[in-house]
Amino acid sequence: MTHTIRTHRPARTTLGALAVAALLTLSACGGSGDHDAKASSDSSASADPSSDPSGDAGSDAAAEPDLDGIPDVVAEVNGEDVTKDEFVPIYEVTFQQAAAQAQMGGEAPDEDALKKQTLDDLVDTELLAQEAESRGISVSDNDVDAELEALAKQNQMGSADELLAAVEKQGMTEEQARSQVETQVMVEQLADDEDGPIRPTEKELRALYAQAKQQQAQSGQEGQQVPPFAQVRDQLEEQARTEQVGKVAQSLIDDLRKDADITINL
Hints:
The protein is mostly helical. The protein has helices at about 20-25, 30-45, 85-105, 110-135, 140-155, 160-170, 175-195, 200-220, 230-260; strands spanning about 75, 80-85, 260-265.
């Protein structure tokens, strides 16, 4: 496989966005207009305590993460620092997502667990970035732009700009979105280098589609129907590929952690 010379380390983000498909890919079954309206409504509800039906201005939706006591260097990975400046913005997004879910479930977010999860993801991503660098694997701005355009197409959107605008309504900045896409592309390239190109079979895609239909039936939302297979095939293919990339990446992480020099300061 031909490699290009890596000229810079990508802005650090978390592996949780191998979740990028979940964070950036909008609803497979809903139109973008409906999703945008919901995202905008949800965002407004989170930002304005008065919009909380309970009338509780101190609800989790308005909660702020506890950032006291976070050291300037939260971890060291094979001599590379993972800094507070890198940790905090990612943790804030993670906390706000957890707070929104907690509001529905009635339980406050477990900040200690969330901090550990965020830091573990950052360490894992750093390990993969170091491994990619050692193999000469690089991610260019053009690679990121191409992936954003592909995600926009999968969501029946006209452009990457339209996708990024929708993502911003969900509380993620353009810089954060591009950073997560950059990490995803890097991990995908590393997974391809490790295990060969990942190409889901038609049988695997059909199985995912059947699973989606079954989940829809079990959800009791009879008014909504899963679109025809041909309409969501691209999204199913991306889901299958993302899942397989995640498995290869996790296997690599397990191996890399065995010999890594990791110091956690948080």
